[in-house]
Amino acid sequence: MPKNSKGREIAEIIPDKCIGCQLCIGECPVKGAMRMEGGVAIIDPDKCVGCGKCVDVCPANSILFEKVRKKKVEAEKGPQPIDEYRGVAVFIEVHQGKGADVAWELVGKARELAAKLDTQVIGLLLGKGIEPIAKEAIAYGCDIVYMMDNPVLEIYLSKVYGKALTSLCQQVKPAIVLLGATPLGRDLASIAATYLKTGLTADCTGLDIDDEEKLLLMTRPTFGGNIMATILCRNYRPQMSTVRPRVMKMPKKDPERRGEIRLLDFQPPRDELPRVLEFIPRKLELGGVDITKASVLVVVGRGACNSRHLPMLEELAHLLGGAVGCSRAVVESGLLPYMRQVGQTGKTVAPKLYIGVGVSGAVQHLVGMQTSERIIAINTDRHAPMVQIADYALIGDYLQVVPELIKGLEARIKERVRQG
């Protein structure tokens, strides 16, 4: 094919075949690159960009141009053979010198998954001076804990932890790796999955094992929470998933339980690492309240979104020794801050008692509170989704129902005080 002064391959007109229809000129995306001369199309070589669009529309096949075909990139195959991968592993996140609660919740779930696969529960632990946490991991349900204990792992750094967890997975070869969907866990999971060239399903609300193929079934909300999708990772290992705190139930700790702890060597990255100049501890939630830790939660929904009546709901929460949460609609109205939001885009909670006041129960909200032990719904709509899943439903106007609840609680408290 001919080339222009810039070395770009361009189209060529066969004058004897051109019928002068001008379709090529109309299709050309570059102004002035084609023109008619003596009833025949002419190409300006220095303006032609070699797109080939003129060739596609020419009815007389009077234009010569061979499009450059893109080379097909073969999909990179996953680790082989995948049969070498065994065990259900949990990354034990360390928070303020202790194992994070979400790690123990995942260990409890890992035991269920491992039982279906007839395999071990493995703990993956990184940090400095972490042997006591490794022993605690065994007490919660790990059969074996692999740890890397190194001063450079004392504080979380993405690059360092990413290399360390990748190295652990490459040496241990677990079939499944679970991490908490915390800020640290989300960051680390994506890094490790990239290095390991495997899949990652984030923010799962359900985990199970397929009976036939023995694959991990990872269920999470999608399309804004309107659909629950179950995802499988067939060809790559490990199968990786992150799970929000409070989604899985905390297992019982058994101090008498026995297991194995293995220390693996860690070689830090050779390039210069950042230095931590100052560590600023996380601030407490508004009013010193963390709704994920509350044993009782009074949740304000759209149906009770009124600043005049919020003190009444706060009083109910206070009498029950709990805290006030809310749905997304209440946050968007400006009545309560985001840190009080329960749901897919807020926080996942699992209180002993959840009281939804005017909460309709959209899927996005249910995802964040479905593991609550007891659910009470106060709503005027008996067909609302929240009413359908509640253990107890009080159908009526919350402005009438809540004062009666407060009155009853106050009377019971006074009676207990009187009885000493």
Summarize the structure in words:
This protein is of the alpha/beta class and 420 residues long. It has three domains: 12-64, Alpha-Beta Plaits, CATH 3.30.70; 82-263, Rossmann fold (3-Layer(aba) Sandwich), CATH 3.40.50; 288-418, Rossmann fold (3-Layer(aba) Sandwich). 27% of the residues lie in helices and 22% in strands. It contains eleven helices and 21 strands. The chain has helices spanning 23-27, 53-57, 101-117, 131-140, 158-172, 183-196, 310-319, 328-333, 363-366, 385-389, 398-418, and strands at 12-13, 34-37, 40-43, 63-64, 88-92, 94-95, 98-99, 121-127, 144-149, 176-180, 200-204, 206-209, 216-222, 227-231, 239-243, 260-263, 296-300, 323-326, 353-357, 374-379, 392-395. The chain has a seven-stranded parallel sheet, sandwiched between helices. The protein has a five-stranded parallel sheet with strand order 18-17-19-20-21. Helix 5 (158-172) packs across helix 6 and helix 7 runs parallel beside helix 11. The longest helix is centred in the C-terminal third of the chain and has 21 residues, at 398-418. The chain is extended and about 110 Å long.
Secondary-structure blueprint:
Elements: E1 12-13, H1 23-27, E2 34-37, E3 40-43, H2 53-57, E4 63-64, E5 88-92, E6 94-95, E7 98-99, H3 101-117, E8 121-127, H4 131-140, E9 144-149, H5 158-172, E10 176-180, H6 183-196, E11 200-204, E12 206-209, E13 216-222, E14 227-231, E15 239-243, E16 260-263, E17 296-300, H7 310-319, E18 323-326, H8 328-333, E19 353-357, H9 363-366, E20 374-379, H10 385-389, E21 392-395, H11 398-418
Parallel strand pairs: 5-8, 5-10, 8-9, 9-16, 10-15, 11-15, 17-18, 17-19, 19-20, 20-21
Antiparallel strand pairs: 1-4, 2-3, 6-7, 12-13, 13-14
Helix pairs in contact: 5-6, 7-11
